[in-house]
Amino acid sequence: VLRDLLEFKSDRAPIPVGKVEPALSIVKRFCTGGMSLGAISRETHEAIAIAMNRIGGKSNSGEGGEDPIRWKPLTDVVDGYSPTLPHLKGLQNGDTATSAIKQ
Hints:
The protein is α+β, with helices and mostly antiparallel strands. It has one domain. Helix content is 17%, strand content 7%. It has helices spanning 23-26, 42-55, and strands at 31-34, 58-60. The protein has a two-stranded parallel ribbon with strand order 1-2. The longest helix has 14 residues, at 42-55. GO terms for molecular function: glutamate synthase activity. This is Ferredoxin-dependent glutamate synthase 1 chloroplastic-like.
């Protein structure tokens, strides 16, 4: 991975972990750019929305909107699969595939 080739050099002392904002607080400010359904695949659109919802971030539906089936939390997941979103795996009951930002 490219980041493994990078090395940070600094003349400053490291900041103690206790003085750094927790990752759970930081990710709540994450927001994806608007990506219309059709510009990317349905699977990708839904996977991004689920991932951002899990971490507390926000995804943007783009101008293509989204299928209303994605607005309700999943309640039919067995072994990571749901008949509601059959093309996705690794799902959990309670996951939602709705985007937080609509255009």
